[in-house]
User: Fold this.
Amino acid sequence: MDILGQLITSFIATAAFGVIFNAPKETLVKCGLVGMGGWIIYYIAEKYTGDSVLATLLATLFVGIVSQELAKFSKTPVIIFSVAGIIPLVPGGLAYDTMRNFVEDDYFHALALGAKVTLLSGSIAFGLVFSEVINQVIRKIRRNKVFRI
Amino acid sequence: MENEKTHTYEIMEVCLLAGKIMLQSGGETYRVEDTMMRIAAAFGIENSHSYVTPTGIIFSAEGAEPTKTKLIRISSRSTDLKKVAMVNSISRQITNGEINLQSAHTLLKELEDLNVTFPFIIQVVAASIASGCFMIMFRGEWNDFIPSMVTGGLGYFGFLYFHRFIPVKFFSEFLASFIIGFIALVLVKVGVGSQLDKIIIGSVMTLVPGLLVTNAVRDLMAGHLVSGLSKGAEALLTAFAIGSGIAVVLSYL
Assistant:
């Protein structure tokens, strides 16, 4: 039941973000699906490992690879799918907590949270770059096979 | 000779126009460079160089005559993925040889002035729905769903509305997050909402510079150091604006 609620809300939230970013109408459902997949991977991985950095990395890898494939399939720029898919993973809540601790003069906690925010956004970027590399490798392997045949 | 010169300038015009629209709509740096070089190559300029930063593009085309260089300034940036996709498809048509130089120029000119965004109301509704959903995703309670929809929607409305007559993005973001903090506080005080933190986090997500941060780090990793750093600076400014807007509410009200 909990998972079901997360699935529905993440789908709607990502698709709504597609509207805010003015993605083409016909891609909105795909954006929502990409975001839903990424968020569920994050949610489950975070629940079982307790490590949000690893969970974010896995989810971003998924979002990156799927959006590259979708982009190739529908002949649109990758950014349309990847941006919407990544939005739920952005550590907005933690960034808010950081700011709140700063405001309440609790600099010790604020700095610790700030470091976590940096790590999380770093892992998002790393996941994106890594998925691009994986895709290029896959493409090269496929091309080589075509040559051999 | 003279004819060829004007021809090169026309090609450069088309390349720069495509690059400008893409960059203004939030396209990635490498995509802008790639698109411009592809268009140039399709029209017969084999050697072209481009230098793209979020605030300007320098493009130069080498040929038989002396190298020509043009600079274009980018003053406003927003996120409009549909335009990126449209420029992408135009450049695809050019490289496939389906349209010629003149029609490409007119198509891009039309696209530049075209407004393809969703209507104002739909954007606000989308933002408010997204806020409610984000609140649930951050493990909030379902009884806070409506309050965070209201806060998020009004906050985003404020952002769009202020941005129309205050050109400073920092200030409209600050005001929007102030509105979010204020409304959330009022709703919790009145007793409609229960968890102040969750409502604020959910509503603020529509303003968070997630796109900028990830694009910044990607640019840095791809070797576009200048644009990576400047996008990072823009993201930092936005985050600071949001944080201080909320901070004012939390500490003084």
User: Anything to note?
Assistant: Residues 107-148 of chain A form the longest helix (42 residues). Chain A has six helices and no strands. The mean pLDDT of chain A is 86.
